[in-house]
Amino acid sequence: MELTWRPLTLGDAEQLATVFAAAEEVDRTGEHYTAADLREEMQGPDLDLALASTGGWAGDRLVSYAAIRRRDAADPVHMPRVEAMTHPEFRTADVAAHLTTWFLDAGKRVHERAFPEVPLELHAGAHENEHWYLDALARAGFRRARSFVEMRADLSALPPARPLPAEYEVVAFDERYDDLTRVARNATFSGHWGSAELSPEAWRHRITGAKDFRGDLSFLLLTPAHDAVIGFVLSAFHPADFAGTGVRELYVDYVGTLSELRGRGVATALLGHTLAHARDAGFERSALSVDTDNAHSAVGIYERCGYEVADTYYGYVLPI
Length: 320
Fold this sequence. Notes:
Layout: E1 4-6, H1 13-27, H2 35-42, H3 49-52, E2 53-58, E3 61-69, E4 81-86, H4 93-114, E5 121-127, H5 131-139, E6 143-154, E7 169-172, H6 178-188, H7 200-208, E8 219-222, E9 229-237, H8 239-245, E10 249-257, H9 266-280, E11 285-291, H10 296-304, E12 307-319
Parallel strand pairs: 4-5, 10-11
Antiparallel strand pairs: 1-2, 2-3, 3-4, 5-12, 6-11, 6-12, 7-8, 8-9, 9-10
Helix pairs in contact: 1-2, 4-5
């Protein structure tokens, strides 16, 4: 059946959730999304639905989608993010070809509006089980550039927590420190592969203003004058994953310390502090993702906190 294609609207979120649920039955990535989750994603400041989204329709049924998310900064390359999902019943060669051709066209449109003066490089990511999508990316010329592992920790079997440095104060996240935390995140991740600076709007939408953010289980390490955040663990709880797995899992979005504190065990101590609080709050498990090529030492940090490798994701790149 030939599909018809048009940009998505917020009103498509319910049908899009159905596509994600059908895909999860086959791909088993461990990720679950409600319509509310997807609607929040669709309202991000990095996504122009009219310009940079498309949905494939079989009659009045949404069966495929794709979107391009611009970055907030491009130094020295603009790396917009490609994302897509297709119902397993419609994973054909024609749909794959349509999507990857659309990636190129839409990526160029997004780039011309955002950062036309710098080079363009499309970035895509996929779970190791998403074989059809991985094959579509490879056939379109994307190359596998990075591997990421998702790690999980059983909170009932945590190793002893390391002591936190006495000269700094540890506090649960507070709105007073929101922008200081963003500045610390941008500084900490500035050298990480595929990472770009987050604007205040993107930061609020994606992290501290997101509906699933857990400020009570996100911790900051402050200077004595409380004028800078020098370490942080930022966490979220996704009810859709709990509904799908029956496991209360705290997802750690970011762990970071400024360069002057590295090598002192601060990240290990702050993460251990977070996990102990999560356990006491009734969480059973924690998860996070790490770039295996970019941060070998980070894998060791997480292992010392009780994490073990569970899944693999791949990062794909296509220079234009």
